[in-house]
Every structure is written in C-alpha cells, then in structure tokens.
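Appendix B. Chain record.
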Amino acid sequence: MAGPPPKPWPTGEAMQLEPLVRRVLAPNPSPYTYTGTQTYIVGLGDGCAVIDPGPDEKEHLLALDAAIGDEHVCAIMCTHTHRDHSPAAKTLAARTGAPIVGCAPLVLDDSGPRADASFDRTYEPDRVMEDGEQMTGPGWTLTAVATPGHVSNHLCFALEESGALFTGDHVMGWSTSVVIPPDGDMSAYMASLEKLYAREDTVYYPAHGEAVEKPRQLVRGMIGHRRQRENQIVRLLGEGPHRASEFVPKMYKGLDPRLDKAAEMSVTAHLIDLERRGLVARSDDIWKTI
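Structure tokens predicted for this chain:
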C-alpha cells in the first residue's frame, strides 16, 4: 500500500486524461480513500456521463458544476454504493435532470471499519445495469462489467471508443481493495479479477489513485498477491488455531494501525473462502485447519 503523493493534490480541478475523459478529485482524503474519490466525466461537450459522483459535499459539487459547465448530463453512473462514491448522485440528478444508472441499490448494516465508506442508503437508481448492458451518449459508449467481490453490487464501466475501463474500487491505483464480509466476498473478488485479466482494456481509471497504464500486469500481480495471502493463512494455521485478528501482526508488517481492522476483515474473507472449500473450520471465533 503506497503512501499518498506530496501535496498539493489537484482537488477540485478538472484534469483532461484523454479526449473523452476528465477527472475531478473530491476533498475526502483518508487512509481508505488515498487522496480522495475521483469522479470521471465522459464526453466531448455535446453530452456527458458522470461516473462515481462522490460524496455529497458542497465543495465537490461546485467543482463538478464548473467542470460540466453548460454541457448536458446524459447519465450519472455509480460503480457501487459506498458513501465515498454515490451520495452526490441524488443532488447532481436534481440539478441536471439526468437519470442515475449503474449498480443496484444495496443497504446493509456495515460492521466494518470504514465509517467513510459505509453503504449509501440514499441511492435510488433510475436504471440498474446488468453485465454487458450499455449506456450511450454523443460519441461515447459505456458498457457495464459486473465485478462483485469488494461489494456484491460492484460494476466497472468500459469506454468502448478508447479501451479505458473505469474500475471503481475493484482495482485501484495505489492499494489492493479491502473485502469485508458479509457483503464482500473473496471468492467473487478473485473471479472478478480473473474476468478482468481475460479482457484487453488498455488503461484503468480507478476511483482512487493514478491511472493504471499496464492493467493486465497489475491484475496478474493482484491475483498472485491474494494467493500469497491465502498461503500465509494456511501456513499460520498449520502452526495452530488463530483468531482472525491474530493473523494481522504476522502478515501485515508495518501496517498503519488505523488499517488493522480492515486487514482483519480481509483475512476473514479469505478464511470464509477457505471454509467453503473445506480447507479450514471455525469454532466461535477460532479458526483451524481440517
């Protein structure tokens, strides 16, 4: 997990990444969001889509207004409904009249550590996109790519005209994604990584961190990293039973203490996956090999 770059960060600035894509950074940095949530605007000027509008904060909404200008907003698209991604959708829809499309709504009690990214209960899409469905506008086509795992309702969006993929939190430019049960699912997450590895996208635009210029190389490394974590867990269980929290200091050397709970939840997601495969078992909160 990389530390953030030196300040100043380009918060609120509309940065042109390629002819069809602009990026606006929200002012919500944290140990979980890196320098903040990145909202993407797709379009050339005749009509645009806004991807992951971000937190419902005045400063960010003003920055989006400035970036959009008089351009018609065709759609507001959300990859998933953590609170750092989708809450501004409702306000932006009221301002622009644009429909909210993309992921399905999801409302769960969040027992995880991410107070900044618990589920957005205000999210009400006008259209839920299934895998392979498309949203089109003047000169652009966005295709939904279902990628459950980080959360069950996660979508990526493929920009057909350029080969770019907007990856939300599924693949980020600075860190692996946290997978928090019960909605986060490690088996689904790994399958979604394999799905992206089989694709031929040319660049990833994540919601946090810089653009990924070698996407298949990164995904291959992420798959290997998760398999390495799984092997660590199995090896440590070979030494004796463990609680999930007891894996963290052994597996995550030098981790920011604020991320301990997130690491514990990802370990738990691995353990649940191993349990389903008949490799480990638990009694109360104690895990052991079978």
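Further analysis of this model is presented in Appendix C.
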